[in-house]
Amino acid sequence: MIQEQVSADLRHRLKEVFGYGSFRGNQEAIITNLLEGRNTFVIMPTGAGKSLCYQLPALMMEGTAIVISPLIALMKNQVDQLNAFGVNAQFLNSTLTKAELNRVKKDTLDRQVRLLYVAPESLTKEDNIAFLREAQISFVAVDEAHCISEWGHDFRPEYRRIKSIIEQIGNYPIIALTATATPKVQLDIQKNLQMEEADLFKSSFNRSNLHYEVRPKQNTKKQLIKFIKNHKGKSGIVYCLSRKKVEEIAELLRVNDIKALPYHAGLDGDVRIKNQDAFLSEDADVIVATIAFGMGIDKPDVRFVVHYDTPKSLEGYYQETGRAGRDGLEGHCLMFYSPEDILKLEKFNKDKSVTERENAKYLLGEMSAYAESAVCRRRQLLQYFGERYPDHLCGEGGGCDNCNPPKERHIDAKEKVLWVLKAVSCTGQRFGTDHLVNIIRGVEEQHVVSYEHNKLEVFGKGKDLTELECRSIVRQTMLFEYLEKDIDNMASGCLKMTEKGERFLERPTPVTFYKDHDYSNTESDNDEGGEGASGTESVPQGNAFDEALYEMLRALRKKVAKQKNLPPYVIFQDPSLEEMATTYPTTIQELSQINGVGLSKAQKFGNSFVELIAKYVEENDITTAADVVVKSTVNKSKTKIFIIQQIDRKVDLEEIAEAKGIALGAVIEEIEHICYSGTKLNLDYYIDQIMDEDRQDEVFEYFMSAESDNIGAALHALGDEEYSEEELRLMRIKFLSEVAL
């Protein structure tokens, strides 16, 4: 009867204060457990309602609940929300003035504050500890509890001291909450908080409404612009690893007519708050942020989360993607991946301690494996957090790019799985992936030899496999539950046999494995190449362009060149045609944004080209350049402007080079960029000093009849003893300025 009354009271307060008619998942059981004074450990995915698990009990108990929270943004957001609900909540952190700090303390001591959010750094201060000793405390909530664990993705040393500080304040029930905890992290949190006996409430990590997708880092800015424009007017977050990249991408989106704002710890506090509020109030559609943004932000309608850079860990990735679709509706989680990103992140860890380096390497390895594997992404994520995903493929609703449509698979991997399991069994189940791969591939590495594992029957059975192929086999043997991680030996990455694996070893059956994605063609941060003077992103290499349209453009170029009695390359060069066949410019303005074109050349030669493209686009129902051309974010051409001004004043190129502190060759290269972008330059004053008229005429005539403007071909045809490369490059500039522009 008492239990029924408590439940009724809880539901009444839930509806009265928060407006919800019922609890979700384990919420009621968690709250009841805490109200009964028991230590409580909650593992619940982002968006499942963790904060309610301590906010509602705070209203039901006498005194003030202390909420230890790692981020000022998180505190502000939750305090603002609670105050809007009529709940007196305050925070204690470094942003408060002395007067504000004293007011918060007074209100708390007067028992007016129901929830007091405290930063872990503030909790350690002696005067705050003394103040909290005097206050009437109901319980302590440790939010984002994964920050305690060195095996977590966002380790905070201050969190390791929480238990000792709580003991100084008094003996209170503790509720620890996190959205991301592998079995190893879970044990670490409980041990550090000395709450091994705590009641554990673990919800499923499966977010069925989210769609997971990984794309290679190729022309990433262009892909990003197109992706966001396909979600026009919807709220989204773009995560970058550095503050500099945040600023760059936010500006990129802004100039491409997307309402985006930056958010990172380097911004002034007022600016951060203003940008966060603009996102929450829908004055901005997109926030570009470091991982500092989003923890505890209660915006239910985030429709997409993009990781522009590869995250540092699967825990971080999962938590950040979990900020999409918190209202239960669809959410798209897109990650751009490059192995180069992983290598770069490993370099960032070189100055850390050996333990930290090993931990970071392990987390990056898991991140890389997730991106490269063609196995269902949902299955990989859930298995990482110790949860079995029974379905073979994830559903159509959320799904992932590996399941919809299914990726290419090996026909039979039975023999390879046997190699892996035999290697694990013969080595006493005491080694990790690296060691097992070396055994299977027959690599006589130091540890393999010292343990005499080069004498095992399975040694070298997979000598024809590449290292990546062999790693994939080991990983999928684990994903399909023949192996599991040894939690007690996580540092060494030990793998143990499961019962399923032991049964397979005794009686092998056919096994189908997936072929991994190939990311060898990706790029890292500098994926867009050098700055194009036209102010657009460079064209992807390879056959990323529309080959049918490309051939039509080549035919048109040949026709125009013949009409004007000019070499085809003078009209437009091949890379420019490739970009036209990628971005489909249908106006002269759009055509002028193509690298190597510029406005003057577009106006001079472009009408027939845009007419052809417009007709092709209409007939084939194609997305046009307006959706995919990326406008430059910043004008980086101060050097170019300087050079143009000096050439107008007829200053010798050597003097320009000396003034800028660069080589003459670099000045000529800048001039070439200027020329290819469509700006006409008159270098006669300089060329006349170094070449007589007859030699100039000979080179000019060569370029007029040549099939291309390649300097190597020109040197071969004209004689490298007669002309220098510098002379021919300058004459090519003169030729293009007079004929093509």
What is the strand and helix layout of this fold?
Layout: H1 2-18, H2 27-35, E1 40-43, H3 52-60, E2 64-68, H4 72-84, E3 89-92, H5 98-109, E4 115-118, H6 120-123, H7 126-134, E5 137-142, H8 162-169, E6 174-178, H9 183-192, E7 199-202, E8 210-216, H10 220-229, E9 235-239, H11 243-255, E10 260-263, H12 269-280, E11 286-289, E12 302-307, H13 314-321, E13 331-337, H14 339-348, H15 354-372, H16 377-384, H17 414-426, H18 433-441, H19 446-450, H20 467-479, E14 483-485, E15 495-497, H21 499-506, H22 547-564, H23 568-571, H24 574-583, H25 588-592, H26 598-605, H27 607-620, H28 625-628, H29 638-648, H30 653-660, H31 664-676, H32 684-690, H33 693-705, H34 711-718, H35 725-739
Parallel strand pairs: 1-6, 1-7, 2-4, 2-5, 3-4, 5-6, 8-13, 9-11, 9-12, 10-11, 12-13
Antiparallel strand pairs: 14-15
Helix pairs in contact: 2-3, 14-15, 17-18, 18-20, 22-24, 22-27, 29-31, 30-31, 31-35, 33-35
Describe this entry's structure for a reader.
This protein has 741 residues and is an alpha/beta fold. The protein folds into 5 domains: 2-202, 3-Layer(aba) Sandwich (Rossmann fold), CATH 3.40.50; 210-384, Rossmann fold (3-Layer(aba) Sandwich), CATH 3.40.50.300; 414-506, Arc Repressor Mutant, subunit A; 547-628, DNA polymerase, domain 1; 638-739, Arc Repressor Mutant, subunit A, CATH 1.10.10. The protein has 35 helices and 15 strands. The chain has a 7-stranded parallel β-sheet with strand order 3-4-2-5-6-1-7, sandwiched between helices. It has a 6-stranded parallel β-sheet with strand order 8-13-12-9-11-10, with helices on both faces. A two-stranded antiparallel ribbon has the order 14-15. Helix 12 (269-280) links the parallel strand 10 and strand 11. The longest helix has 19 residues, at 354-372. The protein is globular. The relative contact order is 0.07. Residues 526-543 have low confidence and may be disordered.
